[in-house]
């Protein structure tokens, strides 16, 4: 059965595609069915339910669209081949001319469906109420005059299609006046005198010589007739608004005898009347010819004709308004489609301009279209010129993906004028315009006749190019309608070209960035020789380095010792075997991480190493590695080592105040996002890919935990999560196995662990704590100096070198508001962490003692102006370089902004900043922190 059904459908589709011609132009050529097909078709006709069900289940989208095309296309519509519908720039999606809108046609624009098949917009039938069929001519003649007029008025009152309405009007007046046939002309063009003759008012008719047997479809096949305003009998009636009744047409000098000679029909008498709207404006002219009894039209006929045409005027005005609204909808559909075409793909200027040229030529229907891009430096010249000639898209071979360039001579006088002034130029005859240079046609085999030239502007209103259309088809002139279309299209084109320029610049910038990152990645990676040397070193035990001690101090470790200690942590946690990490790659990765820490005072490699050691100690002492699992533990250790990568010695607040590039990249957790990005860069650099052997799922999980861990070192994030963590601690009192099954609790615990390890210097013995506090203060004071010298700002107290004596009291406040709550919570969760809390309290007592001494007038000295001693290996080096890549250092070692950057901050006001750690020891509400980034 499927074989039988498929053949008729296939034949029908083929018949749709066959060219029309001859008397049956516009209709599908009849398909030749054999006997078997004929029987099948007859069976289908008798079993409509089966056909309906089969069509719903089996008909492909192409069949549905083909049905829509065959039932919706006017006979004169030109359909693109489905195989070319999706060819992008080479073939326009729409086959609709702007001229269709101008002449009032209702041609439906074509669009491309999802699968590339052409179909029509607005293919849903109008939900107009069904009307009873009009009575026959014989039945109408049996009615009296009043009933007849009422019947004929009722026939036209609900008709909204102008062409059908006009046809009904002519047939009805022929019945009323007992005339043989009639014609109807509609007014088109501008009411005011137009500088372009062809754009002025005229009378246009496609309904000429309509008789009782004529159909609207037959009339549609005829060529339209255009009569100049005031010319002939019809023109006179339209201009004067008065009727004309001619008993003998051949005796009236206004009658055109040529029409009878062409048609073979002899006109004897005619009655011609204007059709006016309610305001008395002439909408058209109706004309009836030859009374059936061979007599002239009487005065009574004139009265009946005039009465009926009053109703016709109202109906015609309504139909025209409806048609205009429909045309406006379709005009918007065209412009939306043009906008979609412009913005859907903006890869290159060549591709963009080709699409513009192709669609413009299809819309306006002219011989040539040119797009000239204005030179950015010299607005009077053009950097590139693209052109398209009618027929270029029909060339055999591979479809074009870029337009021709500089193929035709440029009318520099006209295009230069438009590019300079931005005015639109519409020239009906190029050779009569002084700006046109006739030499461009010499030897070209081409003659400029009509020209429409318009500026293309970007979103800022700047002229970036010119679009020029030459010689509209059918020897027509470019109209105001064309100008409106091109103007609207030029707006989209301007934005499209501008966006494509920006896209090309972005692609170039991305390519440069990629090269730069590749170079930086190479130079940021440790050398293979250094990795081999580290690989050859013996790795002592954890006990040798005291890695399990919460009171760990790195003062006696060399840099090589810190690297070997890191390797020991990876070995003891079984990361190397469990995740198949190449040992040589791990050595190189560690060296690369160390290399990417700047030699700032505190946030350097030594700090990162100490944070990782504290995480290792807590995970092993508490056995919480069983709660997190090996993947999350790996992410935590990597996160600790990388959490301050490329730190510049200044915090998030400074980045925002200085409007640094980092602050422009990341609006929140500025430095932390940068640390994470640097971490990923190293992990993905060749020779440093320690996660290369993880599955894609495990890799994604490690990266996600790694990102959360590094971002958690932002104090703002810490405060946002702390209350929820403290609530859980107060209820559970200990970390149970259930925590391992709850992602939310594990995430909270990981975040708090990162903060506890980051601030762990406060939990060290007093000598270590005081030494680290001096380093932190030194880094803070350097930032304060930058804010005063370069940003003209007053730093917060903790970063103000002038308030150095208040540091002890500020340290006490720091401990009370930030440190104590978190370490008290961890002491509750596990007893092995109690020593951390004890040392925090002990250090607080030391700071209180120093604060009291300072309040009594004793000089407090952190020795911040002295160079670190050479045996103090807790700092990165004896020479501290905390300059950023946006700063320039002077000979004195002070840091200053470049003169260009300095000028940006000349007018900056000094903002009111809040302090977390001030110079008082009064108790404050720990939940109230207004300016957390000032501390971070």
Automatic annotation (TrEMBL):
Record EC number: 3.1.4.-
Cofactor note: Binds 2 divalent metal cations per subunit. Site 1 may preferentially bind zinc ions, while site 2 has a preference for magnesium and/or manganese ions.
Domain PDEase, residue spans: 526-854
Keywords: cGMP, Hydrolase, Metal-binding, Repeat
PROSITE patterns recorded: PDEASE_I_1, PDEASE_I_2
Biased composition (Basic and acidic residues): 864-873
GO molecular function, one term: metal ion binding
Record-listed AMP binding positions: 603-607, 644, 758, 811
Protein name, per record: Phosphodiesterase
Classification lineage: Eukaryota, Metazoa, Ecdysozoa, Arthropoda, Hexapoda
